[in-house]
Amino acid sequence: MNVRSISVPPRTTTSLVLAIIVIALCAAGPAGATGNAARGQTLYKGCADCHSINENGVGPMHKGVVGRKAGSVAGYDYSPDLKNSGIVWTEENLDKWLTGPQAMVPETKMFFDVPDAQDRADIIAYLKEKAK
Ligand code: HEC
To answer: What is the pLDDT of residues 96-121, one digit of tens each?
Structure first.
């Protein structure tokens, strides 16, 4: 990121405030974004075309997904690549997964991504709370 503006004396309070916001956002980073589970519940509707918490559908159920080993739900027919990936669904890995499943597991059969870091953090917060 370009931090040059910080070394220049701010001309107005507004630019100082903006600089502080930019620094705060950069420090938080994608994995560090704080998730809002209530917002995540609304966003999860986008996942619900294929997933639910308690039942397998197009995608595997999400019960206990945070901390779970990838490809481990009984009775769900995973792609061999995801099944053998050795991934554990930590919050960090879920963030990576939702950024682009194919970048993490090239032959996966999940074709859906969540480009916004805050949206990802909110969805993960929801899964952590509601899909225990
Ligand atoms: C269009 C259907 C579809 C949508 C929408 C979708 N997924 Fe998936 N998802 C899948 C499929 C299919 C798999 C199994 C992938 C495989 O076996 O390679 C999967 C797998 C997963 C896994 C791995 C689970 C495990 O047991 O290893 C996670 C986590 C996941 N999805 C989360 C999400 C979340 C969160 C959303 C919403 C932001 C979402 N998915 C949206 C189809 C979808």
So the answer is: 999 999 999 999 999 999 999 999 99
- Burial of 8 by CB count in 10 Å (0-12 exposed, 13-18 middle, 19+ buried)? exposed
109 lines ligand 1 (CB under 6 A): yes
Q: How remote is the CA of residue 72 from the centroid of ligand 1, in Å?
A: 13
Buried b (16+ CB within 10 A) or exposed e, 74-111: eeeebeeebbebebebebebbbbbbbebeebbeebebe
Residues 84/71, Cβ–Cβ less than 8 Å: yes
What 97-104 contacts at long range (C-beta under 8 Å, 24+ apart), as own/partner pairs, is: 98/123, 98/124, 99/30
